[in-house]
Amino acid sequence: MTDAIEVDHLVKRYGGLSAVAGIDFTVRAGTVFAFLGPNGAGKTTTTEILEGLRNRTEGNVRVLGLDPWTEAAALHRRIGVIPQDFRFFEKITPREAIEYYGSLFGTHPDPAGLLERVQLADKASSRFDTLSGGQKQKTGLALALTNDPEVCFLDEPTTGLDPTARRAIWAVIRSLKAEGRTVFLTTHYLEEAELLADQVAIIHHGRIIAAGTPTEIIATHGRPERLRFDAGPGLADYLRSRLPLSVRAADGRVEVELHEKTDALRALSAVEASGLPWQNFATVQDTLEDVFVRLVGQMDDGTLKSEGAA
Amino acid sequence: MRPARIVADLKVVTRSYLRNPVALFFSLIFPIILIALFGLIFSGSGTSPVTLQVVDLDHGSPEAGVSESFLSALNNTSAVKVVVVNQTEENFAAWLGQNDDPVGLVIPAGFGANYTAHRPTTVLVYTDPEDAADSGVVLGAVQGVANYYNLHAANGTEIVTLSQANVGSQVFTYIDYLIPGLIGFSILTSPMFSMVDVAASYRKEGIFRQLSLTPLTRAEWLTSHFVWYMAITFVTAGIMIGAGLVLFGARVNVTLGLVPFLIVGPLFFVSLGMLAGSVAKTPESAALIGNIITFPMMFLSGTFFPVSDFPAGLQSFAHILPLYYVIDGMNQVMLFSNTMRALTDLLIVLVGAVVVFLLAIRFFTWRDE
Ligand SMILES: Nc1ncnc2c1ncn2[C@@H]1O[C@H](COP(=O)(O)OP(=O)(O)O)[C@@H](O)[C@H]1O
Ligand SMILES: [Mg+2]
Fold first, then answer.
1. What's phi and psi for B15, nearest 5 deg?
2. Contact A103 B209 (CB under 8 A)
3. Does the distance separating the beta carbons of B214 and A105 come in below 8 Å?
4. Is A12 in the pocket of ligand 1 (CB under 6 A)?
5. What is the position in ligand 1's atom list of the atom closest to the CA of A48?
6. What is the DSSP letter of A184?
7. How many Å from the N-terminal Cα to the C-terminal Cα in chain A?
8. How are strands ordered across the β-sheet holding A279-284?
9. What does each C-alpha distance from A170 to A119, A138, A202 come to in angstroms?
10. Per-residue pLDDT for A5 more than 80?
């Protein structure tokens, strides 16, 4: 499989601020890539550089083999873009907007079909300024598809939308992948990345702090599996004295880290032997969200600063 | 440049505009209001004769015919309108001071008898220091008629006679100057104000970035806006000329010679508005730059009053304003039929428009560095 997007040591500085501080990744053609990060992480900056809307300070970037900045015109015929906070002419309706894009690209889109596809058929003739946030976003999505793009860039397409509108956009993203298009998606919703993405990169302060499939990221950066009880801190103290395992207590819960299969059995028999009250045991595993929160938190606390400093 | 893309963009511009009642009001109703307002306030001031209050102390004397024919000769100059009032010589000055038309003439008793006997006699003219123009008109008219009478009394022959003709062999009234001026006004204001705003707000809202992702070029985009404002200009010019002809009896030439100005003028100001909006960093500073450029031109280019009526200093300032050449050119076409000067004006505006158009395309960017 070929790479639709190649990013090699990309740096973008705004004055003294390194919004993107040297990142590398590739996106294989036909896959969904989620760029995950908190606000201000550098997602939009990276996305706009890939779209040819912004020049880079350093590094090498190729989208469909083209340099997005110097070969923008050629690239724009082959990509579809919804920017963050998509806005359009206020008095123009979604149908007119699609026809307009069709004339500009010299394509012959089917406005009704496209609007059906993004579940906006009922608002085909409403002016843009009367649409809700979700409907505006769907208009943007329909416009991004008028030129039958090979790569679609969606910058936080679901931020601020209600669950129904969000699911509608997810459905479109899945269908884009099914049609063989490459999707570059930014989001700060972990579940969105987990649900849709083949590959995820977590960016923070302009650096990629984790990358891979969601499972790989959890395996690499997640904590070990844990055995959890509803019990008081007394049990935790007892277990610490008896077991060579890390034990934590918080909010009426006790967690014991498991490194080997037999650890679970040893922990359970120690609990039984304590004679202290406990209920509801379960094994728990980190989600992508746990990993994300922890990695971002550690970095902000300085744990990863040495690694992350420029 | 691809015409299909210009047409597609023009459709969007037209729809956005027609669906915006405020914009529509300003471009179509506002010109009517302007011409009605200025037409009503100032119409007639160019032609109406100055009222001259006359006390004829020779009235009723045996030679009263002389003063009567003197007064009717004054009336015939059509510069003054003689109104004979019944006032005593002593009260006349005070009475005039309270009158709306405080310009007066006293014909002394014995005027007719003295004239017939070739004895000197003096008429007294009261002028109003606050209205030098009216006073000048009256002094000139009385002097003129008196000279004629003197000549006649001396059996002289008029060597130099005067036949009256105005420039362009027509008498122009204020409304005639007002029409090209107000067309110029809307050629300036409607593209300048909206292009400055569009340039700044489309950039802020990311609409330019959105457009940069399509094959539409900046030159195509600017061209479609130019075409739209040119269409607006044709409509407003039509409204102004129509209202001027029908409502105020204007006598301007409506010829094809006007058309180039209605094309090149909007090209200039659409581009200038775009340029002003592009060099500004924020919509607020864009509006400020726009106003700084627009306001002096709005008043000092011959929009509401002919530049030739300005003091010399302001006249030379007007000559560096591009709108001056648009309005002067239209004046040459519509009033004075001076083709050579109209062509010179047109050339100046055309060269300026092309330069500003290219600069606008150069300075307005779709995307950030
Ligand atoms: N045009 C700009 N000029 C200066 N700083 C900017 C600009 N755009 C973004 N930034 C800064 O760069 C950092 C990354 O921003 P951005 O890429 O928008 O993050 P994200 O999309 O992940 O929220 C932020 O600190 C932001 O304030
Ligand atoms: Mg962003």
1. -60, -45
2. no
3. yes
4. no
5. 17
6. E
7. 34
8. A247-250, A253-257, A226-230, A279-284
9. 12, 11, 20
10. yes
**Domains of chain A in sequence order:** 3-78+149-220 (3.40.50.300), 223-284 (3.30.70.100)
Query: Is there a contact between B369 and A54 if contact means CB atoms under 8 Å apart?
Result: yes
Whether residues B4 and A72 touch (CB distance < 8 A) is answered with no
Give dist(CA A211, CA A219) in Å, integer: 11
Torsion of CA A71, A77, A80, A81, to 10 degrees: 50
Fold category of B50-166 in CATH: abc type-2 transporter like fold (3.40.1710)
State in Å: Cα B187 to ligand 2 middle. 41
Predicted-complex ipTM score: 0.83
Cβ(A37) – ligand 1 distance below 6 Å: yes
| Domain boundaries, given as residue ranges, for chain B | 3-42+173-363, 50-166
Give whole-number Cα distances, A65 to A61, A75, A91, A181, in Å: 9, 9, 37, 15
Query: What's the CA gap between A118 and A134, in Å, rounded?
Result: 11
pLDDT one-digit tens code per residue, B75-128: 877 778 888 988 888 888 888 888 888 889 999 999 999 988 888 888 999 888
All residues of chain B having their beta carbon less than 8 Å from the beta carbon of residue A105 are: 214-215
- Strand, helix or coil at A257? strand
Q: What per-residue confidence (pLDDT) applies to B79?
A: 76
Q: How far is CA B125 from CA A40, B66, B93, in A?
A: 84, 18, 10
Q: CA separation (Å) from A54 to A49, B342, B366?
A: 5, 47, 10
Residue/partner pairs of B305-309 with CB below 8 Å, 24 or more apart: B305/B177, B305/B181, B306/B177, B306/B181, B306/B331
Question: What is the per-residue pLDDT across B13-65, written as a single tens digit (0 to 9) for each?
Answer: 999 999 988 877 877 788 788 888 887 776 554 556 788 899 999 988 888 88
Question: B356 exposed, middle or buried (CB, 10 Å; 0-12, 13-18, 19+)?
Answer: buried
Q: Are B348 and B325 in contact (CB under 8 A)?
A: yes
Length of chain B: 369
Which residue puts its alpha carbon closest to atom 8 of ligand 1? Answer: A45
Which residues have a Cβ under 8 Å from the Cβ of A160 and sit 6 or more positions away? A133
Query: Which residue minimizes the CA distance to atom 21 of ligand 1?
Result: A44
Rounded-to-integer distance, Cα A172 and Cα A144, Å: 12
Atom of ligand 1 nearest to the CA of A188: 22
Could you tell me if B196 and B276 are in contact, meaning their C-beta atoms sit under 8 angstroms apart? yes
Closest-CA residue, ligand 1 atom 2, reads A14
CA–CA gap between residue B263 and residue A160 (Å, rounded): 47
Question: Is the pLDDT higher at B60 or at A155?
Answer: A155
